[in-house]
Amino acid sequence: MAGQQFQYDDSGNTFFYFLTSFVGLIVIPATYYLWPRDQHAEQNRLKNIRKVYGRCLWYRLRLLKPQQNIIPTVKKIILLAGWALFLFLAYKVSKTDREYQEYNPYEVLHLDPGATVSEIRKQYRALSLKYHPDKGGDEVMFMRIAKAYAALTDEESRKNWEEFGNPDGPQATSFGIALPAWIVDQKNSILGSWWYRSIRYSGDQILIRTTQIYTYFVYKTRNMDMKRLEMVLAGASEFDPQYNKDATSRPTDNIQIPQLIREIGGINLKKNEPPLTCPYSLKARVLLLAHLARMKIPETLEEDQQFILKKCPALLQEMINVICQLIIMARSREEREFRAPSLGSLENCMKLSQMTVQGLQQFKSPLLQLPHIEEDNHRRVSNNKKHKIKSIQDLVSLKESDRHNLLHFLEDEKYDEVMAVLGSFPHVTMDIKSQVLDDEDSNNITVGSLVTVLVTLTRQTMAEVFEKEQSICAAEEQPTEDGQGDANRVKSKGWQQKNKGTKKAAKSKKKKPLKKKPAPPPLQQPKQQKQKQANGEVVVKEEDEEISDKGSESDEEETNRDSQSEKEDGSDRDSDREQDEKHNKDDEAEWQELQQSIQRKERALLETKSKITHPVYSLYFPEEKQEWWWLYIADRKEQTLVSMPYHVCTLKDREEVELKFPAPGKPGNYQYTVYLRSDSYMGLDQIKPLKLEVHEAKPVPENHPQWDTVVEGDEDQEDSEGFEDSFEEEEEEEEEDD
């Protein structure tokens, strides 16, 4: 068997093709992402949001950074140099001749195909005298001429050339590489080291070693509480200087970290579980706990704490992915020993993401996310006897006078800042609809079917919701003179009325396109025309009978009976027609829903939405965080996950998300819950019930209409073949008679 052979481009011709492609793949996306944007636009954006986000740590860090005006110029120079190199290589490639040619001995000897042996020998003698090395000729060309002469005169060489394209017979399998040999030599390991570094990271830029650590400890601890979760989170290799050069280890850590441990207290140091008990992991955990407690740490550790906090949201998302993968594996396996992580572990990860962004501990009040509301001030708000304020929504739903009295300890400027921040908080409403796509009856959920829950998310700000509630309350106060008590009740329940109003508005919006339907299909028009013609004939017959036989009572009775029977037939036809119209309308509605679902899928495939949604108000997070959400379905009674969490990263105003899961294996009524959890805010999670009525699957009919048509077609084919045979026999008999 022929071997394998690699041919490197040492001449450098095809290497230009590789180099041009390589430079183009770098320069084009780099220009799109790294070309300096308008610096004034970023400054104007920061200036516009200063009233709301001015106290956030990430905002202050952005302003404290020195204005580096040289960097945009350097970026432009580097990108322009890259484009110049790309254009030069493209010009070089266009001028490069392709040296690859198929071997043809006639072309080597400058003869036409089909030349005689005498012509071949004559041409060979002439070229040998010209290119012989002893007479100063080209040795390589002489060898090619001799090889071509042997291929055309020797029988074996000619046979090999005709069968294998080469006079020497079958050659080794050749693979062309558009690289010089030196670039892949073992001595030159720069490319190999770059490749080794790149394969250490996953698609989400998380170290594969970190994913392995999380998988081991999540599988080991099925029910993971918050303390254990913080411990596992800090064990990521991103915080280890051995695997990440950005992570730092200082000599002063041996003094400062033990001091913080004594101040925090309650840190488990006894278990020997590497790498969770390694120095780097302990340092990351202590700095994370100090951030959640809003403790003051030494200045030398502030930079390290900011580095750790920036990594936490992506690491928690990776842990959520690991938990979901283990749940899927547990469902696919039949062994009872393989236990899936609990739903509580998944929700604790989401909760810890909120805590990390806001710098709050697990059971702290969500009101501490607002500026100027510290622990002492919060006690005044929460211990108020007149108004029980426990959440952000409770504070928003108050009247302006009551809220101002509640926050009387704040100055006017601070109060205005609190209201501006409170108005920027998101308020998301969910509209849920469950159906079975690609089925005749999309509303009928059967055993084993694939259920699709369409969740429509509408995002507003608290200020918009508050203004609408106040306008609704004012409109209801105007017609009533003595109804002040009722108006106050409406204001106190304004938060709930907003949800109901949005539901009705969503339903009315969905019903509007169904009203604008075209006229009934043309298949029904002939029936209507026939009915009109039949009624017309009845009228003509009755007039003729009245003119011809006015005095005959028997004829009148017969005509009356006929007219009554025809009227009854007409009423039956009308009822049938109405049923047909209803059925057609239902079919059109289902067809429109199917078309809308297809359009949604096509839109999701074609559109690449930006993940920049709305900046998060976070007092102690060092980086500008975008507002994202998790959406999933769970069975709270069984403590199981029904659909995998969907990370909604593109919700600006409105977003449609499809959650799919298989229907239960037994018919009955099932109570599920749809969860919408923020990855940045505490106390803004949404919960809605989802009821499913699962029916038995429809049995497959024994006499399928397609099978009947196939049988009938076979019978017709047999009849036609028998007819052709009989026709041929008759023709043969006629020929014999003739």
UniProtKB/TrEMBL annotation:
<keyword id="KW-1133">Transmembrane helix</keyword>
<feature type="compositionally biased region" description="Low complexity">
    <location>
        <begin position="525"/>
        <end position="534"/>
    </location>
</feature>
<keyword id="KW-0677">Repeat</keyword>
<feature type="compositionally biased region" description="Basic residues">
    <location>
        <begin position="500"/>
        <end position="518"/>
    </location>
</feature>
<feature type="domain" description="J">
    <location>
        <begin position="104"/>
        <end position="165"/>
    </location>
</feature>
<keyword id="KW-0175">Coiled coil</keyword>
<keyword id="KW-0812">Transmembrane</keyword>
<keyword id="KW-0472">Membrane</keyword>
<feature type="region of interest" description="Disordered">
    <location>
        <begin position="698"/>
        <end position="738"/>
    </location>
</feature>
<dbReference type="GO" id="GO:0008320">
    <property type="term" value="F:protein transmembrane transporter activity"/>
</dbReference>
<dbReference type="GO" id="GO:0006614">
    <property type="term" value="P:SRP-dependent cotranslational protein targeting to membrane"/>
</dbReference>
<dbReference type="GO" id="GO:0006620">
    <property type="term" value="P:post-translational protein targeting to endoplasmic reticulum membrane"/>
</dbReference>
<keyword id="KW-0597">Phosphoprotein</keyword>
<keyword id="KW-0653">Protein transport</keyword>
<keyword id="KW-0813">Transport</keyword>
<feature type="compositionally biased region" description="Acidic residues">
    <location>
        <begin position="711"/>
        <end position="738"/>
    </location>
</feature>
<keyword id="KW-0143">Chaperone</keyword>
<comment type="subunit">
    <text>The ER translocon complex consists of channel-forming core components SEC61A1, SEC61B and SEC61G and different auxiliary components such as SEC62 and SEC63.</text>
</comment>
<dbReference type="InterPro" id="IPR004179">
    <property type="entry name" value="Sec63-dom"/>
</dbReference>
<dbReference type="GO" id="GO:0003723">
    <property type="term" value="F:RNA binding"/>
</dbReference>
<comment type="function">
    <text>Mediates cotranslational and post-translational transport of certain precursor polypeptides across endoplasmic reticulum (ER). Proposed to play an auxiliary role in recognition of precursors with short and apolar signal peptides. May cooperate with SEC62 and HSPA5/BiP to facilitate targeting of small presecretory proteins into the SEC61 channel-forming translocon complex, triggering channel opening for polypeptide translocation to the ER lumen. Required for efficient PKD1/Polycystin-1 biogenesis and trafficking to the plasma membrane of the primary cilia.</text>
</comment>
<dbReference type="InterPro" id="IPR035892">
    <property type="entry name" value="C2_domain_sf"/>
</dbReference>
<dbReference type="GO" id="GO:0031207">
    <property type="term" value="C:Sec62/Sec63 complex"/>
</dbReference>
<feature type="transmembrane region" description="Helical">
    <location>
        <begin position="70"/>
        <end position="91"/>
    </location>
</feature>
<feature type="region of interest" description="Disordered">
    <location>
        <begin position="476"/>
        <end position="595"/>
    </location>
</feature>
<protein>
    <recommendedName>
        <fullName>Translocation protein SEC63 homolog</fullName>
    </recommendedName>
</protein>
<dbReference type="InterPro" id="IPR014756">
    <property type="entry name" value="Ig_E-set"/>
</dbReference>
<dbReference type="Pfam" id="PF00226">
    <property type="entry name" value="DnaJ"/>
</dbReference>
<keyword id="KW-0256">Endoplasmic reticulum</keyword>
<feature type="compositionally biased region" description="Basic and acidic residues">
    <location>
        <begin position="560"/>
        <end position="586"/>
    </location>
</feature>
<dbReference type="Pfam" id="PF02889">
    <property type="entry name" value="Sec63"/>
</dbReference>
<dbReference type="InterPro" id="IPR001623">
    <property type="entry name" value="DnaJ_domain"/>
</dbReference>
<feature type="transmembrane region" description="Helical">
    <location>
        <begin position="15"/>
        <end position="35"/>
    </location>
</feature>
<dbReference type="InterPro" id="IPR036869">
    <property type="entry name" value="J_dom_sf"/>
</dbReference>
